[in-house]
Amino acid sequence: MKISNKTVATIHFTVCSADGTQIDSSKDAEPMVFLQGSHFLIQGLEDELEGKTVGDKFVIDIPPEQGYGIRHDELVQAVPKTMFEDMDVEPGMTFRATTDEGEQSVMIVDIQDDQVIVDGNHPLSGLTLNFDVEVLEVREATESELEHGHPHTEGGCGHAH
After folding, report:
1. Is 148 left (phi over 0), alpha (psi -120 to 50) or beta?
2. pLDDT tens digits, residue range 10-20?
């Protein structure tokens, strides 16, 4: 069976930045299980997995446009520290912020006196990502999985509908 829309695939992967720095890997942990076509994966990886079958192995470089997007400098902003009230904020912390475009995740990247520098870009935006992937299993999705938009493990999906 080939990976196609409405199939559930199980893969092992390692992803590195263009300079070879490992960002994430499932190799020494549980493999990733996903519903093809659900947009759980970045577009470039989902596109490359289309048509693959059990035992297939591949390496692919995915540009930012097919990954986490290009960086937008205007998403880095200085906001008054008073917006964080009495919280002890540190670089690396993430928050949900209400913006003109709706809810958005922002990360604190710096603190300068009474200003907090926040970045609304995804941390992996602007990066070309190198994926090393092995397809372990492919099966038809169940009606329940298709309805919920994600794969279920043996114990169910863990949420009520």
Report:
1. alpha
2. 999 999 999 99
